Amino acid sequence: MRYIAITGIERPVSAIGLGTTSKIFTPAGDGAVAELIDAYLAVGGNCIDTAHIYGFGESEKALGRWLEQSGRRDDIALITKGCHPHVDEAGQFGPPRVNPDAIHDDLSESLERLGTDHVDLCLLHRDDETVAPGPLLEALNEEIVNGRIAACGASNWTVERIALANEYAAEHGLMGFAASSPGLSLPRPVEMQFPGTLFADDDTRRWHADTQMPVFAWTSLAAGFASGRFRPDDRDVDESTRAFFSEDNFERMRRAEEVAEIRNASALQVALAFVLGQEYPVVALVGPSKVENLHSGLGALEVELTPDEMRYLDLET
Questions:
Q1: By the number of CB atoms within 10 A of the CB, which of 174, 196, 213, 262 ranks highest?
Q2: What beta strand segments (E) does 199-316 contain?
Q3: pTM over 0.90
Q4: How does pLDDT run across 158-167, given as a tens digit for each residue?
Q5: Alpha-carbon span 69 to 256, nearest angstrom
Q6: How far apart, in Å, do the first and last CA atoms of the chain sit?
Q7: CATH number of the domain that residue 153 is part of
Q8: Which pLDDT band, with edges at 50, 70 and 90, does 90 fall under?
Q9: The pLDDT of residue 235 is above 90
Q10: Are the C-beta atoms of 34 and 65 separated by less than 8 Å?
Protein backbone atom coordinates (compact mmCIF):
# COMPACT_ATOMS: atom_id res chain seq x y z
CA MET A 1 0.00 0.00 0.00
CA ARG A 2 1.10 3.58 -0.61
CA TYR A 3 0.30 6.45 1.73
CA ILE A 4 0.01 10.23 1.54
CA ALA A 5 0.06 12.95 4.18
CA ILE A 6 -2.96 15.17 4.88
CA THR A 7 -2.45 18.29 6.99
CA GLY A 8 -4.28 17.85 10.30
CA ILE A 9 -4.54 14.04 10.14
CA GLU A 10 -1.99 12.29 12.33
CA ARG A 11 -1.65 9.04 10.37
CA PRO A 12 -0.62 8.80 6.71
CA VAL A 13 -3.65 7.97 4.57
CA SER A 14 -3.67 5.01 2.19
CA ALA A 15 -3.67 5.87 -1.51
CA ILE A 16 -6.61 3.53 -2.12
CA GLY A 17 -9.61 4.67 -0.12
CA LEU A 18 -12.65 2.51 0.53
CA GLY A 19 -15.93 4.14 -0.48
CA THR A 20 -19.24 3.14 1.07
CA THR A 21 -21.81 3.78 -1.64
CA SER A 22 -22.19 0.13 -2.67
CA LYS A 23 -25.37 -1.80 -1.99
CA ILE A 24 -23.87 -3.79 0.91
CA PHE A 25 -23.80 -0.75 3.22
CA THR A 26 -27.34 -1.32 4.46
CA PRO A 27 -28.88 -2.89 7.58
CA ALA A 28 -28.89 -6.29 5.84
CA GLY A 29 -25.25 -6.15 4.80
CA ASP A 30 -23.33 -6.29 8.07
CA GLY A 31 -21.57 -9.57 7.29
CA ALA A 32 -20.47 -8.43 3.84
CA VAL A 33 -19.39 -5.05 5.23
CA ALA A 34 -17.22 -6.68 7.88
CA GLU A 35 -15.67 -9.05 5.35
CA LEU A 36 -14.87 -6.21 2.96
CA ILE A 37 -13.44 -3.79 5.53
CA ASP A 38 -11.42 -6.50 7.25
CA ALA A 39 -9.91 -7.50 3.90
CA TYR A 40 -9.15 -3.86 3.13
CA LEU A 41 -7.40 -3.31 6.46
CA ALA A 42 -5.47 -6.55 6.02
CA VAL A 43 -3.70 -5.17 2.92
CA GLY A 44 -2.78 -1.90 4.62
CA GLY A 45 -5.80 0.22 3.73
CA ASN A 46 -6.87 2.70 6.39
CA CYS A 47 -9.10 5.32 4.69
CA ILE A 48 -12.88 4.89 4.67
CA ASP A 49 -15.10 7.45 2.97
CA THR A 50 -18.78 7.98 3.68
CA ALA A 51 -21.26 10.88 3.68
CA HIS A 52 -24.33 12.15 5.48
CA ILE A 53 -26.41 11.63 2.32
CA TYR A 54 -25.20 8.13 1.33
CA GLY A 55 -28.10 5.72 1.47
CA PHE A 56 -30.06 8.43 3.30
CA GLY A 57 -27.92 7.66 6.35
CA GLU A 58 -27.73 3.87 6.00
CA SER A 59 -24.09 3.96 4.86
CA GLU A 60 -22.96 5.73 8.01
CA LYS A 61 -25.09 3.45 10.18
CA ALA A 62 -23.64 0.32 8.59
CA LEU A 63 -20.13 1.65 9.04
CA GLY A 64 -20.96 2.60 12.62
CA ARG A 65 -22.05 -0.96 13.39
CA TRP A 66 -18.74 -2.25 12.06
CA LEU A 67 -16.84 0.29 14.15
CA GLU A 68 -18.70 -0.78 17.28
CA GLN A 69 -18.32 -4.50 16.65
CA SER A 70 -14.68 -4.38 15.54
CA GLY A 71 -13.35 -1.83 18.02
CA ARG A 72 -10.99 -0.60 15.31
CA ARG A 73 -11.86 3.10 15.13
CA ASP A 74 -8.25 4.04 15.83
CA ASP A 75 -7.04 2.02 12.83
CA ILE A 76 -8.77 4.13 10.19
CA ALA A 77 -8.83 7.64 8.80
CA LEU A 78 -12.57 8.29 8.71
CA ILE A 79 -14.05 10.72 6.20
CA THR A 80 -17.58 12.02 6.02
CA LYS A 81 -19.25 14.78 4.03
CA GLY A 82 -22.10 17.15 4.79
CA CYS A 83 -24.13 20.07 3.42
CA HIS A 84 -25.59 18.07 0.54
CA PRO A 85 -29.03 19.25 -0.62
CA HIS A 86 -31.95 17.24 0.69
CA VAL A 87 -33.16 14.65 -1.83
CA ASP A 88 -36.74 13.38 -1.98
CA GLU A 89 -37.91 9.83 -2.75
CA ALA A 90 -38.14 10.68 -6.45
CA GLY A 91 -34.50 11.73 -6.49
CA GLN A 92 -35.24 15.43 -6.81
CA PHE A 93 -32.70 17.76 -5.21
CA GLY A 94 -33.77 20.51 -2.86
CA PRO A 95 -32.13 23.95 -2.62
CA PRO A 96 -28.48 24.37 -1.59
CA ARG A 97 -27.79 24.05 2.12
CA VAL A 98 -24.14 25.06 2.37
CA ASN A 99 -24.17 27.09 5.57
CA PRO A 100 -22.82 26.95 9.14
CA ASP A 101 -26.00 25.46 10.60
CA ALA A 102 -25.94 22.59 8.10
CA ILE A 103 -22.26 21.96 8.87
CA HIS A 104 -22.96 21.58 12.59
CA ASP A 105 -26.24 19.69 12.20
CA ASP A 106 -25.03 17.19 9.59
CA LEU A 107 -21.84 16.50 11.51
CA SER A 108 -23.75 15.88 14.72
CA GLU A 109 -26.04 13.40 13.00
CA SER A 110 -23.15 11.71 11.19
CA LEU A 111 -21.19 11.24 14.42
CA GLU A 112 -24.25 9.73 16.09
CA ARG A 113 -24.75 7.28 13.21
CA LEU A 114 -21.06 6.39 13.15
CA GLY A 115 -20.88 5.96 16.90
CA THR A 116 -17.74 8.03 17.23
CA ASP A 117 -16.85 11.41 18.71
CA HIS A 118 -14.81 12.62 15.73
CA VAL A 119 -13.97 12.14 12.08
CA ASP A 120 -10.53 12.66 10.61
CA LEU A 121 -11.69 14.63 7.59
CA CYS A 122 -14.96 16.50 7.06
CA LEU A 123 -15.69 17.58 3.49
CA LEU A 124 -18.35 20.02 2.34
CA HIS A 125 -20.19 17.80 -0.15
CA ARG A 126 -21.34 20.64 -2.38
CA ASP A 127 -20.72 24.35 -2.86
CA ASP A 128 -23.00 27.35 -3.08
CA GLU A 129 -21.15 30.18 -4.76
CA THR A 130 -23.60 32.72 -3.36
CA VAL A 131 -22.21 31.97 0.12
CA ALA A 132 -18.99 33.64 1.22
CA PRO A 133 -16.42 31.06 2.34
CA GLY A 134 -15.53 32.92 5.55
CA PRO A 135 -18.48 31.78 7.72
CA LEU A 136 -18.03 28.23 6.45
CA LEU A 137 -14.36 28.18 7.48
CA GLU A 138 -15.29 29.69 10.83
CA ALA A 139 -17.84 26.92 11.44
CA LEU A 140 -15.44 24.16 10.38
CA ASN A 141 -12.69 25.55 12.59
CA GLU A 142 -15.11 25.63 15.51
CA GLU A 143 -15.55 21.89 15.02
CA ILE A 144 -11.77 21.44 14.82
CA VAL A 145 -11.32 23.28 18.11
CA ASN A 146 -14.08 21.16 19.64
CA GLY A 147 -12.27 18.00 18.51
CA ARG A 148 -15.10 16.71 16.35
CA ILE A 149 -13.02 16.89 13.15
CA ALA A 150 -9.27 16.85 12.62
CA ALA A 151 -9.19 18.45 9.16
CA CYS A 152 -11.61 19.92 6.64
CA GLY A 153 -11.90 20.04 2.89
CA ALA A 154 -14.21 20.55 -0.06
CA SER A 155 -15.88 18.18 -2.50
CA ASN A 156 -17.10 19.48 -5.86
CA TRP A 157 -15.70 22.97 -5.32
CA THR A 158 -13.88 24.83 -8.08
CA VAL A 159 -10.23 25.50 -7.44
CA GLU A 160 -10.98 29.23 -7.55
CA ARG A 161 -13.39 28.87 -4.64
CA ILE A 162 -10.95 26.64 -2.74
CA ALA A 163 -8.20 29.25 -3.19
CA LEU A 164 -10.56 31.98 -1.97
CA ALA A 165 -11.47 29.95 1.10
CA ASN A 166 -7.85 29.24 1.94
CA GLU A 167 -6.92 32.90 1.49
CA TYR A 168 -9.57 33.75 4.08
CA ALA A 169 -8.25 31.04 6.41
CA ALA A 170 -4.67 32.33 6.12
CA GLU A 171 -5.73 35.91 6.76
CA HIS A 172 -7.73 34.96 9.87
CA GLY A 173 -5.44 32.37 11.43
CA LEU A 174 -7.71 29.44 10.64
CA MET A 175 -7.07 25.98 9.28
CA GLY A 176 -7.98 26.00 5.60
CA PHE A 177 -9.08 23.19 3.35
CA ALA A 178 -6.55 20.36 3.55
CA ALA A 179 -7.91 18.41 0.58
CA SER A 180 -10.25 18.56 -2.38
CA SER A 181 -12.52 15.85 -3.77
CA PRO A 182 -13.54 16.26 -7.41
CA GLY A 183 -14.41 13.46 -9.78
CA LEU A 184 -11.24 12.10 -11.35
CA SER A 185 -10.71 9.09 -13.63
CA LEU A 186 -8.98 8.19 -16.88
CA PRO A 187 -12.28 8.38 -18.83
CA ARG A 188 -13.87 11.81 -18.69
CA PRO A 189 -17.66 12.16 -18.39
CA VAL A 190 -19.60 13.62 -21.26
CA GLU A 191 -21.79 15.31 -18.66
CA MET A 192 -22.10 15.14 -14.89
CA GLN A 193 -24.95 12.93 -13.73
CA PHE A 194 -25.63 14.64 -10.39
CA PRO A 195 -26.35 18.36 -9.89
CA GLY A 196 -23.53 20.38 -8.39
CA THR A 197 -20.77 17.84 -9.04
CA LEU A 198 -17.44 18.63 -10.70
CA PHE A 199 -14.91 16.58 -12.62
CA ALA A 200 -11.24 17.55 -12.52
CA ASP A 201 -10.54 19.23 -15.85
CA ASP A 202 -7.07 20.16 -17.13
CA ASP A 203 -7.02 23.50 -15.30
CA THR A 204 -8.01 21.79 -12.04
CA ARG A 205 -5.25 19.24 -12.44
CA ARG A 206 -2.67 21.93 -13.14
CA TRP A 207 -3.75 23.87 -10.04
CA HIS A 208 -3.38 20.79 -7.87
CA ALA A 209 0.03 20.10 -9.40
CA ASP A 210 1.08 23.68 -8.57
CA THR A 211 -0.31 23.70 -5.02
CA GLN A 212 0.18 20.00 -4.18
CA MET A 213 -3.20 19.97 -2.44
CA PRO A 214 -4.22 16.31 -2.07
CA VAL A 215 -7.19 14.99 -4.03
CA PHE A 216 -9.69 12.36 -2.92
CA ALA A 217 -10.83 11.15 -6.32
CA TRP A 218 -14.43 9.99 -6.45
CA THR A 219 -15.60 7.98 -9.48
CA SER A 220 -11.98 6.92 -9.89
CA LEU A 221 -13.17 3.96 -11.98
CA ALA A 222 -15.66 6.05 -13.99
CA ALA A 223 -18.73 4.32 -12.52
CA GLY A 224 -17.40 0.99 -13.78
CA PHE A 225 -16.63 2.19 -17.30
CA ALA A 226 -12.91 1.83 -16.54
CA SER A 227 -13.35 -1.93 -16.28
CA GLY A 228 -13.01 -1.97 -20.06
CA ARG A 229 -15.91 -4.39 -20.49
CA PHE A 230 -18.25 -1.93 -22.21
CA ARG A 231 -18.70 -1.44 -25.96
CA PRO A 232 -20.33 1.47 -27.84
CA ASP A 233 -23.39 -0.58 -28.82
CA ASP A 234 -24.16 -1.75 -25.27
CA ARG A 235 -27.72 -0.83 -24.35
CA ASP A 236 -28.38 -2.20 -20.87
CA VAL A 237 -26.05 0.22 -19.06
CA ASP A 238 -26.51 2.17 -15.84
CA GLU A 239 -27.03 5.90 -16.38
CA SER A 240 -23.96 6.84 -14.37
CA THR A 241 -21.79 4.55 -16.50
CA ARG A 242 -23.34 5.75 -19.76
CA ALA A 243 -22.20 9.28 -18.85
CA PHE A 244 -18.73 8.11 -19.91
CA PHE A 245 -19.76 6.74 -23.30
CA SER A 246 -17.82 8.73 -25.88
CA GLU A 247 -15.47 8.02 -28.74
CA ASP A 248 -12.55 9.52 -26.82
CA ASN A 249 -13.23 7.40 -23.75
CA PHE A 250 -13.47 4.17 -25.70
CA GLU A 251 -10.12 5.10 -27.23
CA ARG A 252 -8.70 5.77 -23.75
CA MET A 253 -9.79 2.31 -22.66
CA ARG A 254 -8.43 0.73 -25.85
CA ARG A 255 -5.09 2.28 -24.99
CA ALA A 256 -5.45 1.11 -21.39
CA GLU A 257 -5.89 -2.44 -22.66
CA GLU A 258 -2.81 -2.00 -24.84
CA VAL A 259 -0.70 -0.77 -21.91
CA ALA A 260 -2.17 -3.48 -19.67
CA GLU A 261 -1.00 -6.21 -22.01
CA ILE A 262 2.54 -4.84 -21.91
CA ARG A 263 2.43 -4.43 -18.12
CA ASN A 264 0.82 -7.82 -17.40
CA ALA A 265 -2.07 -6.04 -15.73
CA SER A 266 -5.75 -5.42 -16.42
CA ALA A 267 -7.22 -2.38 -18.14
CA LEU A 268 -8.95 -1.49 -14.86
CA GLN A 269 -5.64 -1.54 -13.01
CA VAL A 270 -4.03 0.67 -15.64
CA ALA A 271 -6.96 3.11 -15.47
CA LEU A 272 -6.68 3.27 -11.68
CA ALA A 273 -2.90 3.63 -11.91
CA PHE A 274 -3.54 6.68 -14.09
CA VAL A 275 -5.52 8.28 -11.25
CA LEU A 276 -2.78 7.45 -8.76
CA GLY A 277 -0.07 8.70 -11.12
CA GLN A 278 -1.03 12.38 -11.10
CA GLU A 279 1.56 15.05 -10.28
CA TYR A 280 0.00 15.65 -6.86
CA PRO A 281 -1.05 13.39 -3.96
CA VAL A 282 -4.16 11.34 -4.75
CA VAL A 283 -6.37 8.98 -2.80
CA ALA A 284 -8.38 6.95 -5.31
CA LEU A 285 -11.76 6.15 -3.78
CA VAL A 286 -13.13 2.79 -4.87
CA GLY A 287 -16.47 1.26 -3.92
CA PRO A 288 -16.35 -2.53 -4.34
CA SER A 289 -19.06 -4.73 -2.87
CA LYS A 290 -16.95 -7.90 -3.03
CA VAL A 291 -13.50 -8.71 -1.68
CA GLU A 292 -12.33 -10.07 -5.04
CA ASN A 293 -13.13 -6.75 -6.71
CA LEU A 294 -11.18 -4.94 -4.00
CA HIS A 295 -8.14 -7.13 -4.59
CA SER A 296 -8.40 -6.62 -8.34
CA GLY A 297 -8.27 -2.85 -7.94
CA LEU A 298 -5.35 -3.03 -5.53
CA GLY A 299 -3.25 -4.41 -8.37
CA ALA A 300 -3.05 -0.83 -9.65
CA LEU A 301 -0.50 -0.15 -6.91
CA GLU A 302 1.93 -2.40 -8.76
CA VAL A 303 1.61 -0.41 -12.01
CA GLU A 304 3.96 2.59 -12.15
CA LEU A 305 3.07 4.45 -15.34
CA THR A 306 5.72 6.52 -17.08
CA PRO A 307 5.04 10.16 -18.04
CA ASP A 308 4.85 9.05 -21.67
CA GLU A 309 2.26 6.39 -20.80
CA MET A 310 0.24 8.91 -18.81
CA ARG A 311 0.11 11.26 -21.79
CA TYR A 312 -0.67 8.41 -24.19
CA LEU A 313 -3.57 7.13 -22.09
CA ASP A 314 -5.06 10.65 -21.89
CA LEU A 315 -4.88 11.13 -25.67
CA GLU A 316 -2.16 13.77 -25.46
CA THR A 317 0.06 11.90 -27.92
A1: 213
A2: 215-217, 282-286
A3: yes
A4: 999 999 999 9
A5: 41
A6: 30
A7: 3.20.20.100
A8: confident
A9: no
A10: no
